[in-house]
Amino acid sequence: MDVVIEQLVESSRSWDKETLVLVTGDHGMKDSGGHGGTTYAETHVPLMVFGNFTSRSNEAISQTDIPTTLSTLFAIEIPPSSIGKTVQYFVKDYELEEQLYILYYNLLVLRRNSNICEENFVKATQMHKDYLKHYDPKKGKQIYDLYYGCINTISENLVQSSVQQNTVFLIFSMILSINCLILIATKVNAYNVYLYVILLSFFLTCNTQFYYIPLICAMIATIKSLKFQSYNLIPTIPIVLHAILLQSSSFIEEEHQIYLFFTCSVSLILSYLSLKTSILTSLIPLLIIISFRFLRKMNSTGDMWASYPDFSDWLLREDNFNYYQIFFATSLIFNLIILSYFYKPKVLQRCFFAVTFFAIFVFKMHFTNDPQLGKFIWFIIGLSSIALKGNLFKKLITTWVLIITLLLRPYNILLIPACILISAISVKRVQSIEILNLIHSWLGFSLFFCQGHSNSIASIDLAPAYIGLESYIPFIVFTITICHTYAFQILSTLLLMNEKKYEIDEVLQTNVIYRLVILITIYSVTFIQRGHLFVWSVFAPKLLIESVHSVVLFFIYCIVIVLQKIVFNKL
């Protein structure tokens, strides 16, 4: 790189125009090669300047100042979200009038995000108007100092605000989650746990200055449960392994690899155990591994691999439109077969399903922007759900399959029958509810990533939220986006609940325990790594995705409990 920079600088000297070369980096690096931490070597980066400057400067420059400075030098608009200031070293040779204009413009941008320093700003702008009439250098220097003082104050305030964290709430979240984990793991009445969480959260929200009171209450309740209850241990090795891997930003960015490894490893183990029965039986789990090799290429995901070509890219090429339609139609047929085989609907119900899938095919292939057809399909799904017969979970699963078939991209429809088949194979070969819960959790997240999602907010697809809508309705858009994003986590959970050989309370308990373990890990990692370079780009988005996932599943549990108790009267 030294040679490359040298060639660039030497070449620029022969150009007709005056040239400035800046060399810097987005982060530093330790001598051992690591980066992303909070050490001096990782958070301080050299800024080397090559050009026609008469003096050197050892002034420390904030990275937030670089975009603002470059915008000024290029004479282009400063980014509206900028919180930095123009480094005066680079404009010191400008005329005073030009420097004042630069400072004035810089201050206007900063004031979009902050209203502090109002008095000095008004004073400086008034003096600036007078200066433009008389060009008094002494007054110009006063204006310069007022502008620069305001810029420094606002910029520092915005920088501090952007990294401000509520440590109390982070600590409280961890302690409360750990306490809930212990209460649920020791089989304390679930309703008492929910009431306890709501009361403590309400108390903390209203009385943040007395946060130590609910913390003490949490500790007392935990000690009490430990004293009188016994643990129900679940398989811990994969959970602990997963928790350890989440300490690394790279593993979070490429978490799809972890879930695919877990899912395929379990399939391989099931295949080996099935050898005792017959060779033919052992081939079925192997088919899961083969299918995942194809499904993971449906949509490239992760931080390193998202830009790689995948099967959906090939299907979406204009010259492959016929293959695209065939693949979509085949996926819908598989969906219909799976629903007919596993849930054995009556003839009328099968007709409803066939009409629904046909309407979805026409809508997705030819009338995607037609809200009226979208509304019609939602109406058909509603009628199909009402006409369904059978137990609660079969109705919920069938309805959910119809909904996500409409929401998913056409090339992702095949993931639905894959999810149902893999779940059925796992249930037949595994008896332990704890292990089955892990398998279904891994399955849901594996397909979450196969769908094209990642631990980045940018991967969320908003287009399905507008199916059947003629205008933006925030609540509906938000709800449908959540349904589309967590489609397979919800489906895998409902499939597990459908197993009659397990009590629903037992299924919920093991599921909540695993969710809490992951949440506690993410809370802890985010807290420990809150000074990490990637806290806002990696750890915070992961915390948001896992938290929303937990809220969604909690909501599903509440619906199931209410339906069983009130509608089906089974509790």
TrEMBL record:
Membrane-spanning ranges: 167-186, 193-222, 228-246, 279-295, 321-341, 347-364, 399-427, 439-460, 472-491, 512-528, 548-568
Keyword Cell inner membrane annotated: no
UniProt key word Nucleotidyltransferase: no
Domain GPI ethanolamine phosphate transferase 2 C-terminal residue range list: 205-369, 409-551
Parts forming coiled coils: none
Keywords on record: Membrane, Transmembrane, Transmembrane helix
Pfam families documented for this protein: PIGO_PIGG
PANTHER family per the UniProt record, alphabetical: GPI ETHANOLAMINE PHOSPHATE TRANSFERASE 2, PHOSPHATIDYLINOSITOL GLYCAN-RELATED
UniProt protein name: GPI ethanolamine phosphate transferase 2-like
Organism: Nicrophorus vespilloides
Lineage: Eukaryota, Metazoa, Ecdysozoa, Arthropoda, Hexapoda
